[in-house]
Amino acid sequence: MLKRLFPHPVLSIVLTLVWLALVNKVTVGNLILGGVLGVFVPMFTGPYWPRRAKVGGPFRVIEYLLIVLWDILVANVEVALIVMFKRNENIRSHWITVPLELTSPEAITVLAGTITMTPGTVSTMLAADGGSILVHCLHTDDPDEVRDTIKSRYEWRLKEIFQ
Amino acid sequence: MTVAIEALISFFLVVAGLFGLVGSFGLIKLENTIQRLHAPTKATTVGVGGVLIASMLYFLLVKGSVSFHELLITLFLFLTAPISANFIAKTYIQGNIRAHELPGTECDYGWSVYDDPPKRIEDEE
Amino acid sequence: MIEAALIFAFGCFGLGLLFNLWRIATGPDSADRILALDTMVINIIALLILYGIKQGTTIYYEASMLVAMVGFVSTVAYCRFVLRGDIIE
């Protein structure tokens, strides 16, 4: 019964929060309206999500988000310095192939988004079977190190989250 | 106290402006298209993010009204920016780069722009 | 102090828009133009929010939200058109 009423509890909570953020005021009426949306939208869209990713460990998710935010800040300053003060001839860009151990589409999407959002690396495309990802790095002396960082810093944590 | 608040908000505004400018400057300074792709991610993350934080602080501390609207815009931008960057990269690669100029995939299939994906069992059902 | 910082930020993002316009005009490839348009949308979002701070109202968030959504969809549609020659297959 509870499973039928809330087929997707995380989506229900997110929808309610997004509704509250959209109206930008927390009142009882808005909370009820957001709750109604949060109950009915997952109920009607449930059949369209047959295979669903399992997300485990809320603390792991928060830890991952904080690490990514910190990396975005640090990498931003590094890339800004490269763009402003490095001559174009001295910028050495590399294509890097990162073989993936992740298999679920959701995890690969999150990894690709993370790689793009941390400035200095852009994920450009996947292999046809999703077995590896092509990353372009703006400036590095050691492409292997970038690949190892991506694998140890992000992919390992994502594997823990989406297992 | 008010001086400290004003200094904090001004700091966020100035940092955001600088990073936004560097992002757009990178767009005209860097040499090839795929390098230029790196520049706007900065403008998106720290540029717009800084402006939104400044705006939240301003309405919270100066105007005295709670506003968490801005988080939604940040969330939306963080979700969509990688997708559009990925699309632009694919557009560029399809038109300008041949398969042999890229490193290999280290797995059985080639890159998705050049190769068809393997048939999945679920698709045929 | 906030006034001065606001004017500085307006100047930065405005100059950024001019740079983007330069890239749209000269960009050798259509991917460059799409990228410049996408960056332009981001700069415009920042400018709208700055204007909201300057006016002291929160009305402009709806506008910047809509600009963000329309900008994303138009970037994707443009890329898809260049990639496949069709937007909705």
UniProtKB/TrEMBL annotation, chain A:
InterPro entries: Cation_antiport_E. One of its GO terms (molecular function) is monoatomic cation transmembrane transporter activity. It is found in: Cell membrane. It is a multi-pass membrane protein. Keywords: Cell membrane, Membrane, Transmembrane, Transmembrane helix. GO terms for cellular component: plasma membrane. Its main location: membrane. It comes from the Bacteria. The chain crosses the membrane at residues 6-23, 30-49, 61-85. Belongs to the CPA3 antiporters (TC 2.A.63) subunit E family. Signal peptide: none annotated. This is Multisubunit potassium/proton antiporter, PhaE subunit.
UniProtKB/TrEMBL annotation, chain B:
The chain crosses the membrane at residues 6-28, 40-61, 67-89. This is Multisubunit potassium/proton antiporter, PhaG subunit. The lineage of its organism: Bacteria, Pseudomonadati, Pseudomonadota, Alphaproteobacteria, Rhodobacterales. One of its GO terms (molecular function) is sodium:proton antiporter activity. Keywords: Membrane, Transmembrane, Transmembrane helix. It comes from Roseovarius pacificus. It holds the Pfam family PhaG_MnhG_YufB.
Automatic annotation (TrEMBL), chain C:
The keyword Ion transport applies. It is found in: Cell membrane. GO terms for cellular component: plasma membrane. It is a multi-pass membrane protein. Keywords: Antiport, Cell membrane, Ion transport, Membrane, Transmembrane, Transmembrane helix, Transport. InterPro entries: MrpF/PhaF-like. The keyword Metal-binding does not apply. It comes from the Bacteria. GO terms for molecular function: sodium:proton antiporter activity. PANTHER family: NA(+)/H(+) ANTIPORTER SUBUNIT F1, NA(+)_H(+) ANTIPORTER SUBUNIT F. Belongs to the CPA3 antiporters (TC 2.A.63) subunit F family. This is Multisubunit potassium/proton antiporter, PhaF subunit. It comes from Roseovarius pacificus.
